[in-house]
Protein backbone atom coordinates (compact mmCIF):
# COMPACT_ATOMS: atom_id res chain seq x y z
CA UNK A 1 0.00 0.00 0.00
CA UNK A 2 1.43 3.37 -0.99
CA UNK A 3 0.99 6.63 0.85
CA UNK A 4 -1.12 9.27 -0.88
CA UNK A 5 0.58 12.14 -2.64
CA UNK A 6 0.70 15.17 -0.38
CA UNK A 7 -0.19 18.62 -1.65
CA UNK A 8 1.56 20.95 0.78
CA UNK A 9 0.17 24.47 1.09
CA UNK A 10 2.07 26.98 3.19
CA UNK A 11 0.12 29.91 4.59
CA UNK A 12 1.73 32.83 6.39
CA UNK A 13 -0.18 35.29 8.55
CA UNK A 14 1.60 38.66 8.53
CA UNK A 15 1.81 41.11 11.43
CA UNK A 16 -1.02 43.10 9.83
CA UNK A 17 -3.23 40.01 9.64
CA UNK A 18 -2.88 39.43 5.91
CA UNK A 19 -2.80 35.84 4.71
CA UNK A 20 -0.16 34.89 2.16
CA UNK A 21 -0.42 31.58 0.32
CA UNK A 22 2.40 29.73 -1.43
CA UNK A 23 2.12 29.19 -5.18
CA UNK A 24 0.31 25.84 -4.93
CA UNK A 25 -2.24 27.43 -2.59
CA UNK A 26 -2.82 30.29 -5.00
CA UNK A 27 -3.00 27.80 -7.86
CA UNK A 28 -5.81 25.93 -6.08
CA UNK A 29 -7.59 29.18 -5.19
CA UNK A 30 -7.39 30.81 -8.62
CA UNK A 31 -7.48 27.66 -10.76
CA UNK A 32 -4.34 28.53 -12.70
CA UNK A 33 -1.16 26.48 -13.22
CA UNK A 34 1.36 26.87 -10.43
CA UNK A 35 4.08 27.91 -12.89
CA UNK A 36 1.94 30.89 -14.01
CA UNK A 37 2.36 32.47 -10.56
CA UNK A 38 5.46 34.50 -9.75
CA UNK A 39 6.28 36.12 -6.40
CA UNK A 40 5.18 39.72 -6.15
CA UNK A 41 3.08 39.65 -9.31
CA UNK A 42 -0.17 41.54 -9.59
CA UNK A 43 -3.00 39.15 -10.31
CA UNK A 44 -5.10 39.71 -13.41
CA UNK A 45 -8.75 40.63 -12.93
CA UNK A 46 -9.71 37.29 -14.49
CA UNK A 47 -7.88 35.44 -11.72
CA UNK A 48 -9.76 37.35 -9.03
CA UNK A 49 -13.02 36.53 -10.79
CA UNK A 50 -12.05 32.87 -11.15
CA UNK A 51 -11.10 32.76 -7.46
CA UNK A 52 -14.49 34.18 -6.49
CA UNK A 53 -16.24 31.59 -8.68
CA UNK A 54 -14.19 28.78 -7.17
CA UNK A 55 -14.98 29.93 -3.61
CA UNK A 56 -18.67 30.11 -4.53
CA UNK A 57 -18.64 26.64 -6.11
CA UNK A 58 -16.86 25.10 -3.13
CA UNK A 59 -19.39 26.80 -0.83
CA UNK A 60 -22.25 25.33 -2.85
CA UNK A 61 -20.82 21.91 -1.99
CA UNK A 62 -20.61 22.72 1.72
CA UNK A 63 -16.96 23.79 1.82
CA UNK A 64 -16.91 27.17 3.59
CA UNK A 65 -13.74 28.97 4.67
CA UNK A 66 -10.35 29.15 3.01
CA UNK A 67 -9.01 25.83 4.28
CA UNK A 68 -12.21 24.03 3.22
CA UNK A 69 -12.11 25.72 -0.20
CA UNK A 70 -8.50 24.66 -0.74
CA UNK A 71 -9.41 21.14 0.39
CA UNK A 72 -12.33 21.01 -2.04
CA UNK A 73 -10.19 22.07 -5.01
CA UNK A 74 -7.40 19.72 -3.97
CA UNK A 75 -9.95 16.87 -4.06
CA UNK A 76 -11.12 17.98 -7.51
CA UNK A 77 -7.70 18.47 -9.08
CA UNK A 78 -5.68 15.82 -7.23
CA UNK A 79 -8.25 13.12 -6.32
CA UNK A 80 -5.70 10.69 -4.88
CA UNK A 81 -3.82 13.33 -2.90
CA UNK A 82 -3.98 14.61 0.65
CA UNK A 83 -3.94 18.36 1.41
CA UNK A 84 -1.48 19.40 4.11
CA UNK A 85 -1.74 23.00 5.32
CA UNK A 86 1.22 24.49 7.18
CA UNK A 87 0.54 27.84 8.84
CA UNK A 88 3.23 30.25 9.96
CA UNK A 89 3.03 33.61 11.64
CA UNK A 90 5.57 36.18 10.58
From TrEMBL:
This is Uncharacterized protein. It comes from the Bacteria. The lineage of its organism: Bacteria, Bacillati, Actinomycetota, Actinomycetes, Mycobacteriales. It comes from Mycolicibacter senuensis.
Amino acid sequence: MTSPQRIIVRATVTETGDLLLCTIGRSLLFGVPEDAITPGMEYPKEWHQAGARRVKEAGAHGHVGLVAVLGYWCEQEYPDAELVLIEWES
